[in-house]
Amino acid sequence: MRITQYALGQACWVELASHDWQGAQAFYHALFGWNAVEMAIPNGHFSLFNLEGDDLGAMYQIPESEPQIPSHWRIYFAVKDVEATVAAILAAGGQLHMGPHVVGEAGVMAQVSDPEGARFALWQAKNHSGSRRQGEENTLCWVELACREPSAEASFYTQVFPWTALPSHVPGIDYTEWQIDGQSMGGMMKMMPEWGEIPAHWMPYFVVADCDAFAAKAQGLGAQLCVPPSDIPDVGRFAVIADAQGATFAVIKLNALS
């Protein structure tokens, strides 16, 4: 559906940081059909991803001076006041990494992290509310936090955002749903010892029409499957994919859209 305004605390934007902006543009265009419109910025490359003219997210080139930073996706959450939210994050044990920065007439942003180090961003909209489409094919539909201390993380995020943490009965998984006014918009899962040293992180989920076919297509474009197509009872079929440069995201065929 097309979106013109986000509720406070909703995931409103996604952004890809890539070491090869041209390769990433080609990969996501071939995979999702997204077009990329490059924006003029000093000393770098920044593009907006769109679908049929509607902005979905953005991508920027990681500076060559920072080769240690892996390619990654970043999720933005809508806030009313970035500075006040940053203050709440710091008070609750999180950190500020960048900003707040005014982005022209579009809005104000900041990059932050939770107590376990999972990074995310804040967006105080002015003239740009965020992604114009969500919940339809080839667009964002869910965001998920993977962490090691769900109880502590639930305490942090419910202090920072107007979220409710609702335990969810997913077989074999310690899972929590994030809700705003009774509507689920994301989740949190506990990372098990077999995850090794993977740090806590947020991951976006995008809707696809056929999870298996999509995963195979991604592999054909140079991606790797972190989690092969798997069923989530009563929800749908999902896969976790690392793009050709290692940025991870998930795709899901939702039963509700069948």
From TrEMBL:
<dbReference type="InterPro" id="IPR041581">
    <property type="entry name" value="Glyoxalase_6"/>
</dbReference>
<protein>
    <submittedName>
        <fullName>Glyoxalase bleomycin resistance protein dioxygenase</fullName>
    </submittedName>
</protein>
<dbReference type="InterPro" id="IPR037523">
    <property type="entry name" value="VOC_core"/>
</dbReference>
<feature type="domain" description="VOC">
    <location>
        <begin position="139"/>
        <end position="254"/>
    </location>
</feature>
<dbReference type="InterPro" id="IPR004360">
    <property type="entry name" value="Glyas_Fos-R_dOase_dom"/>
</dbReference>
<dbReference type="InterPro" id="IPR029068">
    <property type="entry name" value="Glyas_Bleomycin-R_OHBP_Dase"/>
</dbReference>
<dbReference type="InterPro" id="IPR052164">
    <property type="entry name" value="Anthracycline_SecMetBiosynth"/>
</dbReference>
<dbReference type="Pfam" id="PF18029">
    <property type="entry name" value="Glyoxalase_6"/>
</dbReference>
<feature type="domain" description="VOC">
    <location>
        <begin position="10"/>
        <end position="125"/>
    </location>
</feature>
<dbReference type="Pfam" id="PF00903">
    <property type="entry name" value="Glyoxalase"/>
</dbReference>
<keyword id="KW-0223">Dioxygenase</keyword>
<dbReference type="GO" id="GO:0051213">
    <property type="term" value="F:dioxygenase activity"/>
</dbReference>
<keyword id="KW-0560">Oxidoreductase</keyword>
